[in-house]
Amino acid sequence: MSLLNSMLFSTILSADSWELFKSSLLPMITGGIKYTIPLTLIAFVVGLLLALLTAMMRISSIRIVRIPAIIYVSAVRGTPLLVQLFIVFYGLPNLDIKIDPFPSAIIAFSLNVGAYASEIIRASILSIPKGQWEAGYTIGMTRTTTLRRIILPQATRVSIPPLSNTFISLVKDTSLASLILVTELFRKAQEIAARTYEFLLLYVEAALLYWVICFLLSLIQEVIERRLEKYAAK
């Protein structure tokens, strides 16, 4: 084990490796800024809108509205994200529907986030006591108004922590977009590794960059959660 560790450190810390590490840092960061972060943000926002709609359909008392949402959530949660990505990018062209890599990634990730986040939102809404609904009805509010003014604000506070975790997971999942030729952070690492054959060094470097991004997001999540706790205490 000690021999393996020494070989690993000698590979990573050699002068040539250090120069490669520094020279490949900017292309990876550029890939992250141009593709990884925008892909994450766009897919999460679109996914949240889809999740809210799906959650509303799931809690509806109308069967014909509820069943499509149940099927959608079940289908997405029951299949791998990679398969969904391949269906959108490689499968749809068989139906003469050709979509570029980046939009394909947005569609696949948005659908995936929408299904998982809808369950978080639905559970958050159902966690609000029924007395809150009754209080809204008592003062003359309709179901829609009660949902918008009383239930959703409380459900939002409950759903923030799990939704934050979903967002952080999405950052890591965007690495799968490299398989459909989106030149995001990990794709840049693959391209440089293919030229230099320094796979260990470059993949470790990519992992470190993902870790830094997720670590910073975790710090932001903690700040938001602390503020929400203070608000809840009041």
From TrEMBL:
The superkingdom of the source organism is Bacteria
The UniProt entry lists membrane topology as: Multi-pass membrane protein
Please tell me where this protein is predominantly located. Answer: membrane
User: Residue limits of the ABC transmembrane type-1 domain?
Assistant: 33-221
Keyword set for this entry? Amino-acid transport, Cell membrane, Membrane, Transmembrane, Transmembrane helix, Transport
Q: Where does the signal peptide begin and end?
A: none
Q: Where in the cell is it found?
A: Cell membrane
Matching entries from Pfam families are given as: BPD_transp_1
List residues traversing the bilayer: 33-57, 69-92, 200-220
Query: What is the similarity comment for this entry?
Result: Belongs to the binding-protein-dependent transport system permease family.
Q: What is the protein name stated in its UniProt record?
A: Amino acid ABC transporter permease
Q: Which organism is it from?
A: Tigheibacillus jepli
